[in-house]
Every structure is written in C-alpha cells, then in structure tokens.
Design brief:
By secondary structure, the protein is mostly helical. Helices cover 70% and strands 0% of the residues. The protein has 4 helices and no strands. It has helices at 2-25, 32-45, 56-64, 72-90. Helix 3 (56-64) crosses helix 4. The radius of gyration is 14 Å and the shape is globular. It starts with a helix and ends with a helix.
C-alpha cells in the first residue's frame, strides 16, 4: 500500500512538471506549487460526466485560476494544450 502511494505521488509530481513546462511555454508566471494544486483540483473536477473532461477542464481552469496571474484566454489555451499533448503522448501506448 505504501509502495503504491509513493508511486502515485511520484506520478503526480511528474505530471505537475509536465503541466508546469506548458505553463512556462505560455509565459505565465506562476509557481510550480500553484500549478500542481490547480491541476490536481481540475483533474478531480474532470471526473464529472462529460466527453473526456472537455469543457469541464476549460471552465475549471478559467474559474479557479486567479485572473491577475492567468488570463481567461491563456487558461483555455493551457487546458487545451494539456489535453492535446497528453492525447498525442498516449497514442504510441494504445
């Protein structure tokens, strides 16, 4: 149980780095911890019934992020980039 918990924690940290690299590529100046927390909350909200979280994710990024740090346009762009990048990265694995 502890081993699985550690693997899950490591996965979340790596996924947070993945999202943070996208944040940096959009020239958004927020901290890694803020990105990690926000992405984790959005991931939980994406579990609501929807088409693979599309729409819910964008709505969550726009409404949960501080508009002084992330503009709504950049929040939607960030959400779509996260979705399409993860979609492309998952293609070789089936």
């Amino acid at each position: 149980l502890v081993k699985n918990l550690l693997i899950s924690l490591l996965y979340r940290i790596c996924e947070g780095l993945f999202v943070y690299m996208i944040v940096l590529s959009l020239h958004i100046k927020i901290s890694y911890l803020y990105t990690l927390v926000l992405h984790s909350v959005v991931s939980v909200l994406k579990l609501a019934p929807s088409i693979n979280g599309l729409g819910v994710s964008e709505f969550s990024w726009v409404n949960l992020s501080d508009t002084t740090l992330i503009s709504p346009e950049k929040a939607v762009t960030l959400s779509l980039l996260i979705y399409f990048t993860s979609l492309i990265l998952s293609l070789p694995g089936g």
